[in-house]
Design a protein that fits this description.
Distance between the termini: 8 Å
Order of helices and strands: EHEEHEHEH
Organism: Trichococcus collinsii
Pfam family, one: Flavodoxin_NdrI
Strand content: 15-25%
InterPro entries: Flavoprotein-like_sf, RNR_NrdI
Radius of gyration: 13 Å
Helix content: 25-40%
GO molecular function: FMN binding
Strand order of the largest sheet: 2-1-3-4-5
Number of helices: 4
Protein name: Protein involved in ribonucleotide reduction
Structural class: alpha/beta
């Protein structure tokens, strides 16, 4: 299972690097990349305009068929908005919300997400 992510401040990248899974970091330059294997997305919490490259990636070619789940990072101080990018992607694309973590996560967050990925197959 590939892990596709974007990271503006480096927090999401730090989290994803701890997963010890194959990753693709999305940028404006590669947002329309084609993938032909199952993947999850790890999304930071930002306004939709900032995270549109995640939707661009999902909507490219047949990528949506390989999209299996989403996790999200953010700041608990956001209150109800904590993890809203991941929640919105899960709702909009009908995939499971696998986990939400704060900042760059901790060992328990890593363990939880790895278990969820294993359950997905």
């Amino acid at each position: 299972m590939k892990v596709v992510f974007m990271s503006l401040t480096g927090q999401t990248r730090k989290f994803v690097n701890k997963l010890d899974l194959e990753t693709i970091e999305l940028t404006a330059e590669n947002a329309f990349r084609k993938i032909e294997e199952p993947f999850i997305i790890v999304a930071p919490t930002y306004d939709k305009e900032v995270t549109d490259i995640l939707a661009d990636f999902i909507e490219t070619d047949q990528n949506r068929a390989y999209f299996k789940g989403v996790a999200g990072g953010g700041n608990l101080n956001f209150g109800k908005l904590f993890g809203f990018t991941a929640k919105d992607l899960a709702r909009d694309y009908g995939v499971p919300l696998l986990h939400l973590f704060e900042f760059q996560g901790n060992e328990k967050d890593i363990q939880i997400l790895k278990e969820k990925v294993t359950e997905l197959g």
